[in-house]
From TrEMBL, chain A:
Family according to the record: Belongs to the GatC family.
Pfam family, one: GatC
The protein's name in its UniProt record: Aspartyl/glutamyl-tRNA(Asn/Gln) amidotransferase subunit C
Function: Allows the formation of correctly charged Asn-tRNA(Asn) or Gln-tRNA(Gln) through the transamidation of misacylated Asp-tRNA(Asn) or Glu-tRNA(Gln) in organisms which lack either or both of asparaginyl-tRNA or glutaminyl-tRNA synthetases. The reaction takes place in the presence of glutamine and ATP through an activated phospho-Asp-tRNA(Asn) or phospho-Glu-tRNA(Gln).
UniProtKB/TrEMBL annotation, chain B:
Active-site annotation: 82, 157, 181
The organism's place on the tree of life at top rank: Bacteria
Protein name: Glutamyl-tRNA(Gln) amidotransferase subunit A
Family statement drawn from the similarity comment of this UniProt entry: Belongs to the amidase family. GatA subfamily.
Residue ranges of every copy of the Amidase domain listed in the record: 27-476
Organism: Phytoactinopolyspora halophila
Tagged with keyword 4Fe-4S: no
Pfam families: Amidase
GO CC annotations on file: glutamyl-tRNA(Gln) amidotransferase complex
Signal peptide: none
Gene: gatA
HAMAP family recorded: GatA
Function: Allows the formation of correctly charged Gln-tRNA(Gln) through the transamidation of misacylated Glu-tRNA(Gln) in organisms which lack glutaminyl-tRNA synthetase. The reaction takes place in the presence of glutamine and ATP through an activated gamma-phospho-Glu-tRNA(Gln).
Length: 99, 506
């Protein structure tokens, strides 16, 4: 099994939208290497012909009658918003100047 | 009943006393609020206590009783709610800075059912951040302390709920169990914790850790109380697509039957792989005595091998972080929760990065990165894909075992409560606490932990772990009640009666 470098942790953190401090990167790289070494033992199990399980119990689509029912008011939905404006979530700019 | 008495009674006794008018629900609630005021400074089981709301709910139960309304079997009984379950009238943080102070706009189905049953919600209990941990040390708001020894962990992630029970700050609590977070805290605090069959209790309003593993369940000091609470919260919910649309197993009936002390005809399997190296001597001693006890109560005990259980921990720590990395993506600083760095010049993506970097603790970050890695292209098949196949093999081990026996047993966790701080930065050592409990989450079957004595070397509680097939939850209650009844007779009281008095500290 492969090991995991500090650069790779930094890349994963970018993918996960997670800002990490330099000391966090150092610390995590060492720990993740250990953890991945341990969990990598799943590869010792001969399971080529075994189907994967994504859910413990079989699941099927669930439908309900196509009728209107009450839902959250916009006030309730916005009640936890970091910032709201004119009945909407206010978010930081999505596009930079160059876009 | 004196005020001190009120916090010592079982939930069943309190409900009966409220129903008969011997005490009011307000008096019962006030006694527990007083107890919280006296001891929670040292225990830190609660993140939030809402005395006014609790007393108002209690007054409503008293008013309904006075008006002649028929009350449910737990009406007027106080409860401690794990802070991962949404409440419209109290903050819900999941132990995370990223949700500090958040007030959800809706109640979880569990909460609605508790309110409908007249159960009094005292407050929200401490937990490892997003239910990730085995000690509550991953809470952003400081750890909970084990009432048996305040320098030790109360288990996790539901350490707050278990410690509230063990320090008599509530007779009932709700926990959630993704890899052992109900059962391991129950074991190390000398309380009862049941993980129902996956889909047995609605997940609507339960903040997701790993959706294919998460299951809420009852925590209590006695088996019968856990069964009564199970019946209040369980059952089909159209708001949860994985909720099982079948009748709730008769768990209270099974607990009553078990308490008669006769397990004749019951086939019990001791899992060969869950013991030996790495297990504390005192844990193994109490476990083996309890297995002997099951035989004396009439059960047929055999040893059963579940060869793939040895890979359960590894598969779990790939599947869980994978689901976590996806589930925690919703904390994006846009719609609720923390937002940092929004200075008018930074982009949404920068704000998101900064917020998540500030708002998540070390363990959440570890698991997000691990899950992102396990799901990334080039590694997916070797890690997540292979872990899902091992999950199938573990389910097959259970299926084969349940052809031979009715229930499986093991210790709940390999050691008793360890000192706070001991494993906080050693993730692999911490993860091993879940060795015995994880297989049931992977397979979705019912399981539970029951007190079975104190380890000789440290005088701390040990748990008996009982596993039953999917939707055979009643079997764990039957076994648990039989063991409890036998030990109460032998010890002259519950295990918790042997716990030291918690120092009063505001």
């Amino acid at each position: 099994m492969s090991s995991i470098s500090r650069d790779e942790v930094a890349h994963l953190a970018r993918l996960a939208r997670l800002e990490l401090e330099p000391d966090e990167l150092d610390h995590l790289a060492g720990q993740l290497d250990q953890i991945i070494g341990a969990v990598g033992q799943v590869s010792q199990v001969a399971a080529d012909d075994i189907p994967p399980t994504s859910h413990a119990l079989p699941i099927t689509n669930v439908f309900r009658d196509d009728v209107r029912r009450p839902c959250l008011s916009s006030e309730a939905a916005l009640s936890g918003a970091p910032e709201a404006e004119e009945g909407r979530f206010r978010v930081p700019q999505i596009l930079g100047e160059e876009q | 009943m004196t005020a001190r008495d009120l916090s010592r009674h079982t939930a069943g006794e309190l409900a009966a006393a409220v129903a008969s008018g011997e005490v009011s629900a307000v008096e019962v609630t006030q006694a527990h609020l007083d107890r919280i005021g006296a001891v929670d400074g040292g225990v830190h089981a609660y993140l939030h206590v809402d005395a006014d709301a609790a007393l108002a709910a209690a007054a409503d139960v008293d008013a309904r009783r006075a008006a002649g309304a028929e009350l449910g079997p737990l009406a007027g009984v106080p409860l401690a709610l794990k802070d991962v379950i949404t409440t419209s009238d109290m903050p819900t943080t999941a132990g995370s800075r990223i949700l500090e102070g958040w007030r959800p706009p809706y109640d979880a189905t569990i909460v609605q059912r508790l309110r409908d049953a007249g159960v009094i919600i005292l407050g929200k209990t401490n937990m490892d951040e997003f239910a990730m941990g085995s000690s509550t040390e991953n809470s952003a708001f400081g750890p909970t302390h084990n009432p048996w020894d305040l320098s030790r962990i109360p288990g996790g992630s539901g350490g707050g709920s278990a410690a509230a029970l063990a320090s008599f700050q509530a007779p009932l609590a709700i926990g959630t169990d993704t890899g052992g977070s109900i059962r391991q805290p129950a074991a190390v605090t000398g309380t009862v914790g049941v993980k129902p069959t996956y889909g047995g209790v609605s997940r609507y309003g339960l903040i997701a850790c790993a959706s294919s593993l998460d299951q809420a369940g009852p925590c209590a000091r006695t088996v019968q109380d856990a069964a009564l609470l199970h019946e209040v919260i369980a059952g089909h919910d159209a708001l949860d697509s994985t909720s099982i649309d079948r009748p709730v197993p008769d768990v209270a009936g099974a607990a009553r039957q078990g308490a008669e002390g006769d397990l004749s005809g019951l086939r019990v399997g001791v899992v060969s792989e869950l013991g030996g190296e790495g297990y504390q001597a005192g844990v193994e001693a109490r476990f083996h005595e309890t297995v002997e006890l099951l035989g004396k109560l009439g059960a047929d005990v055999v040893e059963v091998s579940c060869p793939h259980f040895s890979y359960g921990l590894a598969a779990y720590y790939l599947i869980l972080p994978s689901e976590v990395s996806s589930n925690l993506a919703r904390f994006d600083a846009m719609r609720y929760g923390l937002r940092v760095g929004d200075d008018g010049t930074r982009s949404a993506e920068d704000v998101m990065n900064a917020t998540r970097g500030t708002g998540f603790g070390a363990e959440a970050k570890r698991r997000i990165i691990l899950g992102t890695y396990a799901l990334s292209s080039g590694y997916y098949d070797a890690y997540y894909g292979q872990a899902q196949k091992v999950r199938t093999l573990i389910s097959r081990d259970f299926a084969a075992a349940f052809e031979q026996v009715d229930v499986l047993v093991s210790p709940t966790t390999p050691t008793t409560a360890f000192p706070l701080g001991e494993r906080v930065d050693d993730p692999l050592a911490m993860y091993k606490n879940d060795l015995c409990t994880i297989p049931s989450n992977l397979a979705g079957n019912a399981s539970a932990s029951f007190p079975c004595g104190l380890a000789d070397e440290d005088g701390l509680p040990v748990g008996l772990h009982v596993m039953a097939p999917v939707m055979a939850d009643e079997r764990v209650y039957r076994v648990g009640a039989a063991v409890e009844q036998a030990y109460v007779t032998q010890w002259g009281g519950y295990l918790l009666d042997q716990a030291p008095e918690v120092e009063e500290r505001q």
